[in-house]
Structures are given as C-alpha cells and as structure tokens.
Design brief:
With 640 residues, the chain is an alpha/beta fold. It has 4 domains: 4-163, Rossmann fold (3-Layer(aba) Sandwich); 170-346, NAD(P)-binding Rossmann-like Domain (Rossmann fold); 353-596, N-(1-d-carboxylethyl)-l-norvaline Dehydrogenase, domain 2 (Orthogonal Bundle); 603-639, Single alpha-helices involved in coiled-coils or other helix-helix interfaces (Up-down Bundle), CATH 1.20.5.320. It has 26 helices and 16 strands. It has a 7-stranded mixed sheet, with helices on both faces. Helix 9 links the parallel strand 7 (193-196) and strand 8 (223-224). The chain is elongated, with a radius of gyration of 32 Å.
Length: 640
C-alpha cells in the first residue's frame, strides 16, 4: 500500500506546477484532477460558470476510485482543488494515514494577479472569488504559502511532509482559556495534537479555526469543528483530552463521541469533575471497551501553558499509554522530574485535585484574613502589608503569598486596586465537595470548611451591609497595640501547617476507604511546582511523607515547630477577636489543634446527652473499649 499526496487549494496557487515537481522529487506519477472532469463540466468552467455540488458528484467518485487504484499500486501525486471538507471526505477512499493533504495558499490579490497573467487556461479570474467563498481550510493538511520560488516551496513541502504526522497523538476538545494553553503546551513539546471546538452560532464561532490561524506561524494545528473528522485525525487507539465544564457537558461530549470511537480508545477528563462522576463514567465506558481517566490539572492559565501539576487517575494501563505525553507537558520539580504521577484507580485523580483545591481554599483565606487583620485592625496600608508578606515569603516561598504581594502593590489612578475589589467571593464546587467528602469519611476538616463557609458568607454582601448598620461599627481595640510581626508570622505558619495536615489526613482516609493506595510523598512532590499551592513547605512534605505516612501532626519535626508556635497562634486569634476582626481559618486551625492535642475532650458530655435523649449508649473510661452502656440519667445512677 502506497502513499497518495493531494496538492490542493484554489485555482492559481500552482497545484499543477508544484504537484509535478513534487512527483518528480518523490518519483511518483502525477495526475491533475481537472483531467477527470466531464466535457460538460469543462465547458461550463470555460464559460465562467461555477460548478454546483451535484455536478461534481461523478467527478469526485471517479477520483476516489482512482485514488484507491494508485494506493494499491505505486502511489501518486494528485493536484485537486478539494475546497470543501465534504469533497475531501469523498476523496478519502483509503485509510487516512495513507493520504497526505498539501494545502497551497496565499492572499486573494496575489492569486488573482497570477490568474490574470496566465495564458490559455479556461479558468477565468472572475471565478476566483467564488472559490475563496466556499474554501474550507483543511485542519490536517501541510500548509504552504506560495509566495516563494518553486524550489523553496518544494523544499518547505518536503520538510513539512517528513515531519508531519498524518494522525495526531492526542486530540483536545474545548478551547477555553485552559484548553488553548494546554494545546500550545503539547505543541511546544513536539506532541502532534488535533484541536476541536464546537460551533454554536452567535456563541462559539470558528474558535478552533481562529486558534489555529493565530498560531500558524509557529505550530501546524489540525483544527476541527466537525467531531467525526476530528476523531479520524487521531492515531489508533485514540487519546482524547476533554477540557470542558464539569457536569452535564462532560456527559454530552462523551455521548457525541461514542459513535466514532473504537475499542481501546481513551477519553481523559482534564476538568474539575466530581470523583464519583468520574468513577461512574469509567465503569460506563469500560462496558463499551473504552478507557476513561480523570486527570486533575492545577496551575491556572500560565501553568497550563508552561507546565502544570497533573493528577491522573483511572486504569493503570491507560496511564502507561499516555503517561509519557502528560509528563512532557507537566512542570518539573527541583530534580527535573515531571510534576505528574499515576495517582491511583477510579476517581483517585479527581479526588486528589479536589483536595488540592480544598487546601488552596484554606491557604487563600488564611492570607486574606491576615491581610484584613493588618489593614483594618492594625491600620497598615496595602504596600506595607505587601512588604511584610514579601519578607515572610523569603522563607515560605509560597506562590499564593507571592501573587498576594503583587496584588497589594497594584495601583489604579494612584489608588490601591485591592481597595476597589468587591468583598464577595465565589466557590466553584471543589471546596464544598471536599467538605462533603470529609463528612462522608468522618474526617475533621475545620480549616477548609471554614474557608468555604467564609466565601459563602462573603457572598451575602447586601445583608452584611444592613447588619453593620443594625449593630453599628465595632471599636477597633487592637489598632493602638504594637504589632508583633514575628508572632503573627509564626501564627500564620502554624495555621498553614495545620491546614495542610487536615488536607493530607483526608487523603489518607480516602486511600484506606477506597483502597487507592495513595502515595502521599508523590502527591506532595507533584505539588512542588506548577500548581497553585506550591511552596517550600510542600517540598518538605514530600520528604516527610517518605518516612512518615501517618497524621502530619504526629511527626516529630512538625510537632517541635507547633509546640513553639501554638502560643502565637492562640494570641493572634485572641487579639483579632478582641479587636472585632473575624479570622475563621486561623481560629479553626487553633481550635482543631487544641482539640487534637487534648487527652480529654468535651465529647463525654455529647455521648451522655445522646444516651439521655436517644438511648444511643456510651463507652466508659473504667471499662474496656468496645463495651457499651446505657443509663437512666434522670434517676439514681441506674445503669444497664
């Protein structure tokens, strides 16, 4: 079976001339599609009458039959306009990998002049506009601008043909901000990638086409708004990467893909889907002989472009197939290793990404309320707080602290921009999902839950304004007190450690419950670069979890720090509350820590209350664990 090269484009781009030169270079026979037209078609074109689609039917059928013959014999080079995708589909009568499309093109004025200067050809210059009007640029072709010498054009074709992959290694669906950045990241790493975006009139129009054209000087993106053609452009077994909104959109895309997929094809969901949805989709597609992976991606637009942290979960054999591609685009840790690792089966990848976002919620709120305390209780200006955060970050090396410094220094019209930002935050779902997961798994989740709830209450802006009028302004008692900067820093450090400990404790419990066998050290390692919660502390955690897989607060190294810093944590929380400043996450961190290190908690009263009103029974301190008792609390010490 031999290769067939089809040189296409509007009339006047030089299809015949370049086609013959290419055939000579490749030592293949050359054919001109115009020679296969019927006499009637040729007559109409000589008279300047554009052909209708139905008049091209027999011509396309004849060409398709000949392409099959050439493919079986010695191959060929064919010069053919093939201006519409439907024409190209008709001509694709042999497997896609055996056809190379070469699209010759240039500006309208350039080609018009060529045709006007051409002698003895039946194609009239006035017909050119009609060809540009119906031209649908091919996504999978080798694109060559013909404003060069014939020799230069041939050399460019040969170079691109030799490197051009007729089938992409991966196909990306969804060219939003993250999708575009990931596509560019793949292409920059030498990964052959096709891109698709739906076409919705008045909403999403020519997204894929415009993206490819915008970057055509650097990358040759095969682009599509036709799903079947997009799927055909991929290597078998196919790898499809979804970058669409979580929820129904994922299921809609999957359902639209199914008619075109084959056994062994793989769909990767790179969005923030719920881990239980991911597990359901994996089972559903496995019944159809298809693989499905949920891959969490962190890093935002810049991370997606330059190197994100990637958390793929699902079938291990699927990761073996695409792991190398994902690791190519991932950020690198300090040892140069990709910040991407196989997380575990089922929904493990999306669970870990969800928890990453939960820790992120806590860290963001911790910084926000520290800023708020300094600004409104200590009367520091944003630039002063920025300088303090900058000093702290010499040790913390936190991405979130780093961007907070930039935020606090940003001015607009000589005023700090932060002061113009409305104090009403939103949450997309992952924070709330992680809180629900903690409830289901029975894990205390104080700091992250507090961060989620802080966003919820911030959203009640109008109601809060009314409440402030009702209750009046509180006196800022802490404003006159001298700020203990070192104590505040140590309190911030302690709260951050506790927030991370809470997050990793949920990971540990989920791993046991779902039998995911999560590697906490590896998870911390891939969070050392590319992701939003990267920091020097995360690098420490990667090492700590290599030796210590239990609750982080039981680690000797961590316990020494918290023993030293807990008084600062309590003092700052106390100072903030006395100055009428809310610090939900720092308070939650202090409460969690004090509860965790208390040998005697208040839960004995809870158990007694439950037994009193509901006969739920209780255990006793003077009896072995596992023995349960019920008492009649309103009478004299009667115990059953």
């Amino acid at each position: 079976m031999k290769q067939v090269y089809i040189v296409m484009g509007v009339s006047g781009v030089g299809k015949t001339t370049i086609g013959k030169l290419l055939a000579e270079r490749l030592q293949l026979p050359f054919y001109d599609a115009d020679d296969f037209h019927s006499a009637d078609n040729v007559f109409k074109m000589r008279e300047g009458i554009p052909l209708r689609d139905e008049e091209r039917e027999d011509w396309l059928e004849l060409l398709a039959e000949n392409i099959q013959k050439w493919h079986k014999k010695e191959g060929a080079v064919l010069a053919c306009s093939a201006l519409k995708e439907q024409y190209r589909q008709r001509l694709s009568s042999i497997p896609e990998k055996y056809i190379t499309w070469i699209f010759l093109h240039s500006g309208y004025d350039v080609i018009y002049k060529r045709i006007a200067d051409r002698k003895g050809h039946y194609f009239k210059p006035d017909l050119l506009q009609s060809q540009y009007d119906i031209l649908e640029e091919p996504g999978t072709a080798v694109h060559v601008d013909v404003q060069a010498t014939e020799e230069e054009i041939i050399e460019e074709i040969m170079e691109k043909v030799s490197s051009h992959k007729h089938n992409s290694e991966i196909g990306l669906i969804g060219l939003g901000v993250m999708g575009k950045s990931l596509a560019l990241n793949f292409a920059s790493k030498g990964v052959a990638i096709s891109v698709f975006n739906r076409q919705v009139e008045g909403v999403e129009v020519d997204i894929a086409r415009n993206f490819a054209l915008e970057h055509k000087e650097i990358y040759d993106f095969p682009w599509f708004d036709d799903l079947e053609a997009f799927v055909r452009s991929l290597h078998r077994p196919r790898n499809l990467f979804l970058m669409v909104n979580a929820g129904k959109a994922v299921d809609m895309v999957i359902d639209s893909l199914l008619p075109f997929l084959e056994e062994g094809d793989l769909i990767i969901d790179g969005g923030n889907s719920h881990y239980k949805d991911t597990e359901l989709r994996e089972k559903y597609l496995a019944e159809k002989g298809l693989h499905f992976m949920g891959a969490g991606i962190s890093g935002g637009e810049e991370g997606a472009l330059k190197g994100p942290s990637i958390m793929p979960g699902g079938p291990a054999e699927a990761y073996e197939r695409v792991g190398e591609l994902l690791e190519k685009i991932a950020a690198k840790d300090k040892q140069g290793k990709a910040c991407c690792t196989y997380i575990g089966p089922g929904g493990a990848g999306h669970f870990v990404k969800m928890l990453h976002n939960g820790i992120e919620y806590g860290e963001m709120q911790l910084i926000a309320e520290t800023y708020h305390f300094l600004k409104f209780s200590k009367n520091l200006q944003p630039n002063e707080i920025a300088s303090l955060f900058e000093e702290w970050n010499k040790e913390m090396q936190s991405f979130l602290l780093e961007i907070s410094v930039d935020i606090l220094r940003k001015k607009e019209d000589d005023e700090f921009l932060i002061d113009k930002v409305l104090d009403a935050a939103k949450q997309k779902g992952t924070g709330g999902w992680s809180t629900n997961a903690a409830l289901e798994l029975g894990v205390a989740f104080d700091t992250i839950t507090a961060a989620v709830m802080a966003r919820n209450i911030s959203g009640k802006k109008e109601e809060r304004v009314e409440a402030s009028v009702l209750y009046g302004k509180f006196e800022k008692k802490g404003a006159s007190e001298k700020l203990d900067q070192d104590g505040l820093f140590k309190a911030y450090q302690a709260a951050s450690i506790i927030n991370h400990a809470i997050g990793f404790e949920l990971l540990s419990e989920a791993s046991k419950t779902y039998d995911w066998q999560l590697n906490l050290s590896e998870i911390a390692r891939i969070w050392t670069n590319g992701c939003i919660i990267r920091s020097a502390f995360m690098e420490r955690l990667a090492g700590i979890f290599k030796e210590h897989s239990e609750n982080l607060l039981m680690n000797e190294e961590i316990s020494r720090e918290l023993k030293e810093n807990r008084k600062h944590l309590v003092n700052v929380v106390s100072s903030a509350l006395q100055s009428n400043c809310s610090m939900p996450v720092m308070s939650a961190a202090a409460n969690y820590f004090l509860s965790f290190v208390s040998a005697q908690s208040s839960a004995n009263m809870i158990q007694a209350q439950r037994d009193s009103f509901g006969a739920h029974t209780y255990e006793r301190t003077d009896k072995p664990r596992g023995e349960y008792f019920h008492s009649h609390w309103s009478s004299e010490d009667e115990t059953i």
